[in-house]
């Protein structure tokens, strides 16, 4: 079923009106329309902010995971340095043993 049309060609429900210039509206109706418009703007703003907040949370989460991963990578590198230190200590012990053997 088609929507009723006015002489201008637009459907009645699609027309925009200016509440300040509409003669058939009471002050209470104008106030209610203003409140509804404010509520709709607030909802639209909340939707936009929700999207931004999600992007921000994903960005912060990615940075935190990156730092966490880098920390694990650095700790695994420290084990490599421990092995080098053990080899250096063994080389020092061999050097001392040679020095003691040469001194006797």
Automatic annotation (TrEMBL):
Residues 42-87 form the Cytochrome c oxidase assembly factor 3 mitochondrial coiled-coil domain. It is found in: Mitochondrion membrane. Signal peptide: none annotated. Keywords: Coiled coil, Membrane, Mitochondrion, Mitochondrion inner membrane, Transmembrane, Transmembrane helix. Pfam families: Coa3_cc (PF09813). Residues 1-24 are annotated as: Disordered. It comes from the Eukaryota. GO terms for biological process: mitochondrial respiratory chain complex IV assembly. Belongs to the COA3 family. Required for assembly of cytochrome c oxidase (complex IV). This is Cytochrome c oxidase assembly factor 3. The gene is CCDC56.
